[in-house]
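Researcher: Last one for today. Full complex below.
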Amino acid sequence: MLSRVAESLYWLSRNVERAETLARVIDVAFNRTIDRNAAGRERAQRMWKRVLELAGLFDVPDIDGPSAAQEAFSLGSFDADNRSSLISCVRIARSNALGVRAELTTEVWESINSMYLFVEAQSPAAIAREGPSGFLRRIRDAGVAFGGIVDATITHGDEWNFLQIGRYIERATMTVRILQTHDVADDSAAEWQRLLEMCCASEPFARAQRHSSEPSEAIAFLLLHDSFPRSVRFCVGEVDRSLHRLSETLPGTYSNECERVTGRLHAMLDFTQLQEIIDEGALKYASRIADRLSSIGAAIETTYFPRVPVA
Amino acid sequence: MNFTILHQTTYRYPQKIHESYTICHLQPRSDLTQYCTKHDLAVAPRVRIFTYQDRFGNDVQHFAYLPDHDVLSIIARSNVATMLPSNPSIPEPVTRAAIAGDPSLPLLYDFLHESVYVTFGPSLRELAADLGPPGEDLVEYYLRVGAAITTAFTYDKSATTVHATIADSIAARAGVCQDFAHILVGLCRLAGIPARYVSGYIFSGQEGSILGAEASHAWCEAYLPPHGWIGYDPTNGKLINDEFVKIALGRDYRDVSPVRGLYKGASAATMSVNVGMEALVNQ
Amino acid sequence: MATMQPLLERYARVDFFDEFADEVGAPRAHYAGLAQTLRSIDWSDFQHRVELVNSVLLQRGVTFTVYADARGTERILPFDLIPRIVPADEWSLIRRGIAQRVRALNAFLADVYHEQRILKAGVIPWELVFSSRFYNREMIGVRLHKDIYIHISGVDLIRGRDGTYYVLEDNLRTPSGISYVLENRDILKRSFPQLFAHYQPRPVDDYPIRLRRALLASAPPGLSEPTIVVLTPGIYNSAYFEHALLARRMGAELVEGPDLLVRDNVVYMKTTKGLQRVDVIYRRVDDDFLDPLYFKSDSSLGVAGLMDAYRAGNVSIANAVGTGVADDKAVYPHVPAMIRFYLGEEPVLPNVPTFDCNDPAQMQHVLGRLDELVVKNTNQSGGYGMLMGPFATVEERGKFAEAIRANPREFIAQPIVPLSCHPTIIGDSLAPRHIDLRPFVLYGDDIDVPPAALTRVALSDGSLVVNSSQGGGSKDTWVLEE
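Model: Here's the assembly. Have a good evening.
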């Protein structure tokens, strides 16, 4: 398929996934700041700062006061100049979709277009009045629906594989980055609960860990679980599977640089034990994973849509 | 006379570019007035060079280099034997009727009308009016206005750029050979004389002289039947003789640019050109 | 329960040729079945279907974009549900006439870019060709496969007061409109199957296959499975929907300029598995923007070096570069002469009588009658558009007169042709509105005229302007079997 088309499908998928995740993260953050006391407010500020970093906003002045959460929400959602804000992600996704309209099914196009039309029609002021939860929930649902419609209506060929790669790379990256927002000064159960909720993992985790609630177990769940669909290991596995479907080769081998770095990270996650992560330090380990994911992203670009075409 | 010519063009880019496409008009023509006995084009980085003949009969070379690069070097080497006399006599008079009755006139449409660089603006028309209209003899007019450009205009490299219009040059009464050639072509066309632009080289030294850092040259050719195309150099004020080597001809500079092209990448090129022409002793 | 019967009865003919009703107001033979069907249809049901159809059109994106501002507005081309019917004998005449015309125009193109016999014979003035903005110098001497230049043409036809078909205009560069033909038929079948009672119009949906056949025939010789691409300017082009639709139905890749590159005089497209060779380009990008190395250098819509690959015979371009000289409005009056010169035949379909302002006597005639004539710009520089003499102000006529005197080559004039009319739903009644007809001609191994024509209708009362951007609409066109 055309490199340009593959590139558009990849970024379309990544941006929808990012929008969905951001919506969830902001919703959880918002919920957790509503009922905080004075001590909690300081913690909440630090948390918002890190959340906004997720949404691509750095060097944000201290957000304080009751309207703090509101402001943070607006910045993370509606700042059109910030390419990582919620609204930017949705716009970029839709613009990519427009460019490959011919390759998408009508159902998929309409799914993205309605998400876009919904976001464009919102007034930040109205949301501020009513509370953002309803709006954010709609975005989350639209993101999830998009994934479902893609899986159910697009033939699972090359186009579908690029959409998968985009979705799972973004999901793995966001899971790690959410982990990296962990406040080292706070080892409370509440803090770990927040991380799990932001990764949409709190209920699956509770089910998997009927008895214990050790923080380290949460790390293992989010990074190493083999069948939780948002764990980094699972996501990298899906990327690996899609790459091999594209090249029609067997997993466990590699036919290009992209397959090599992906396969290596997948193997690493397959065979790492929790104790190794604890020994290295969770955040250090997460940082290493983030680097590896970043190089997979770069390898995808140079392999499938290189700037300079390979002769 | 026999010449050996070196024409070196180098492009340097501060940041790497890719997908560059280049077209060259560097191969001297072979016709009744000169014969190109050898032509060699060397390009670095190594490329596959293609060649075709355009509708003016010019031999055009083109090539592309797709991967990242920051230097493009093009070296053309040619040997040419020129056959015009060293002191050509002034052609017999030519009237309007001769041109009007010439059977190839309809095919010369492009040489009678405006082109990219030769536009019939107010400044060209004013200049034509200042120089006085042609009389019966168009040869007389051609040589007269050609010489007038030589005396009235100053050769000044800083006066105009490669992409200047003739209006700029006329206003400044200054320019380089490219501008003077365009102006003479324009004046001829306004007077109903088919005229074309020639790029080439002029020999400035004696036999056995050292290769110098010169540049390529440009002049005009006018169609004056029954003499055919007569060349005149308005920069030096003389009829074309055996010291001139033609490379290519066309409507104007755009049709004969020695090297032109396109590439992908943000950085702007710095170009250096080196031309050397040596007369060969007795071949 | 109100039916359409009263609407049909109230249908008032006007003083033009009416496709549906004859001089005494009775439906023509080939419309009798439709009239019968319409009489029995409930009016509110009909209206309801009209609304349904419009929402389907919007949903599918059968739109064109009008750029009044930077973002542009997407509009659907209004679709009138009453079909236009062409009986077999009329279609036979049309088919013969436009096939003949395209054959002659193609011969003209091959001739002006090579031997130039028609110019040397003095049948067409040299200057006319050389002064045409679309006579592309880079094409002089370039040999094309089978000497075919116009693989796809759209010939616009109108009918005069006595029902004679005239050719109004040839479209030989990037003719469009087929997507409306395909969508209109599909939508009408789905939303209004009863209309088709008594009729079996020839199918139109094989057009993309026929187009593909013609494009494959144009491919450079020796290739067993030529690769075809559709080159589009991109999503902001007003006809993008059509580019995407044709690419999809032909199974061809839809590409934009940056997706292609030329290497060693061969065209390739950039795919995820590396460079893949391209053999045929169905281009919907204008000549000027096709190759920044030879034409407009700031164009990002084309491919650098495409002309080199083309000249070397390694890629086929449909339609060829430089076809605009043959649909130049100033060349139009000479087409009958071309038919005689190249084919030795008399034209089957006449031109609309035309005054060539380049001829001094004709120019005087035109200047004296600006209030009666339509004056058209021959596309040299754009900007002046068209003057509809009887509807223009004195000022506007004055401006045109000045322009004509200054640049006679840029103008032709024609009497206002009384276009034929057809019943059209206007509000809650049926009224006659002017229409035209655009059949398409494909030229592959031989000339193919699919029974897929676009009927455009001027929706404003009395308007003779059928253009989409100026308030036109379209109708499904039924070509009947023998």
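Residues 207-213 of chain B have pLDDT under 50 and may be disordered. Residues 204 and 243 of chain B are 8 Å apart (CA to CA).
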